[in-house]
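Hi R.,

Here's the chain you asked about this morning:
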Amino acid sequence: MTRTRRLQPVVEHTDQQEKRALQELAQSQAMYEIEQQRLQQLRDYKREYLERGETDGGTCSPIQLQEFNRFLQQLDTTIERQREIVELRQRELEQKRLSWRDRRIDARVLHKAVERIRRQELREQDRSEQKTMDEFALRRGR
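And here is the predicted structure, written out as tokens:
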């Protein structure tokens, strides 16, 4: 069994790791985008809510004003939590990107090494065949 044939399971495993890392990167990218959209929706909602409050005309009871301010505080807290989630997803995304890059580098290095070994095996096979042919020609010529 040739060295390249013996290395084939290692190559396949490395390729699978790279593929898995790429899938995880894609999932992480999707989650980041979803969380980013949620954050933007919350910010848009707050802006619209404030604009609606300004256009209502200004007369409201102290209780309504208190409820309005309490709701805005809750909304600000929710926005801040969502911003933290987005930051977390962004860090996860960067980690997945680095992991995929490392797996990709590993796979490329292994593929190059296997290709180098394969070329060496072909050269050795060519030499062996040439030697056999030379020996055959030498015997025939006698």
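One quick note: The longest helix spans residues 62-141.

Cheers,
M.
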